[in-house]
Amino acid sequence: MGTFISLKTAIPGPKSIELAKREAKVVAAPMCDALSPAWIAEGHGALVTDVDGNTFIDLTGGWGCLAVGHSHPRVTAAIKHQVEHFLHTDFTSVPYEPYLTVCEKLAKLAPGDFEKSVALFNNGAEAIENAVKISRHVTGRTGVVVFDRAFHGRTLLTMTMTHKAKPYKGGFGPFAPDVYRMPFVTPYHPSIRVDEWEKLLMTYVDPSTVACFVVEPVQGEGGFRVPTDGFLEMLREISKKYGILLVADEIQAGVGRTGKFFSIENWNVVPDIICIAKSLAAGMPLSAVIARKDIMDKLPGSSIGGTYAGNPVACRAASEVIDIVEDEHLLERAVALGKLIRSHWDTWKEKYEIIGDVRGIGAMQAIEFIKDRTTREPATQLNGQIIKECLHHGVLVAGSGIYGNCIRMLVSLEITDEQLTEAFGVMETAVAHANESR
């Protein structure tokens, strides 16, 4: 119990338990494995209150969808205003201004001194699928190069592009063809040198058959892995050399989480196509593909789209989110949060042997837990123990990493220093207990 955390029952409480019983009867079993057994009743900013009246500090941010926090009043007001006018038409049937406004704002924000075009979709996987479709149509090639530990979605193509077999791919084959996986070079998990990457590429695929490289500038589900200096610049150089389009997957890292609206802006790299989703519309289903206009203009009419793509209610939410990021100086706030997070976590690393690495950019930070600092063997079980202990003491934290041995910050950029400090008090206790039990 603290200033913000308030636990009135055991977790889960009786009302949450009753809801779980109803869930087990009708909800598909694969969907019944939530991080939290406590069912939400309301959320504001970085706080969540469950149906039993327990209040948690939420560091998961709707799995990265709530950079502006739960129920931001400006977002909810925009949604209410749109709902009172119309809910849907399909933009390619009867167009509407909210779609146009979001496209204008994203085109202006995206890096690159060239004209840009924007297409809106429903979620991150759709954005990635369409980025690949666009790349293949424009280049006349079929190959797609992705990276180890990447996550791009769960549709047929995007689960093929995703690295982790279980639970995302096991039993769901056969997979999409012409997808090739290459090393994502990082300081903590070195595989090859940056200057060796092109030679290795040539052993997997003829570059003249590759339509696009699809890369997360900072890997999300893979454990918030930041690339080695020069890696993204090398990808840009190699892609230009072979006429390959560079696609930046900003689904999780975008909308200010790294201190830049697009995480790729942390490097001197301008991609041909950018995909963005999650926090774009504060949890409403919306994604976008932003591309060079000369690329988009080569596609025939109706070749991309979707009935619900760019729903007007979601567009109004996104337009407001973009303005909030600027008006409330959330890019600067992400940088400040990153410093606060690291001030705690770097100290923990010195105290607790199970912490192998602390990494990230801005508020997009992660801890990797290991059994031994020499072998760097993943401490998956200890990570799960920490997450569970935090939950039962009022803090929701998200795991990640291909071995499930990382904790990542998907926190709202609206969280206060006091809320984060209270949450970290709980979290450090859990880390200390795990360190003792190893």
From TrEMBL:
MF GO annotations: identical protein binding; pyridoxal phosphate binding; transaminase activity
Spans through the membrane: none
CDD domains with a match to the protein in the record: OAT_like (cd00610)
Cofactor(s) in the UniProt record: pyridoxal 5'-phosphate
Superkingdom in the source lineage: Bacteria
Keywords associated with the record: Aminotransferase, Pyridoxal phosphate, Transferase
Pfam families the record matches: Aminotran_3
Family listed: Belongs to the class-III pyridoxal-phosphate-dependent aminotransferase family.
Protein name from the UniProt record: Aminotransferase class III-fold pyridoxal phosphate-dependent enzyme
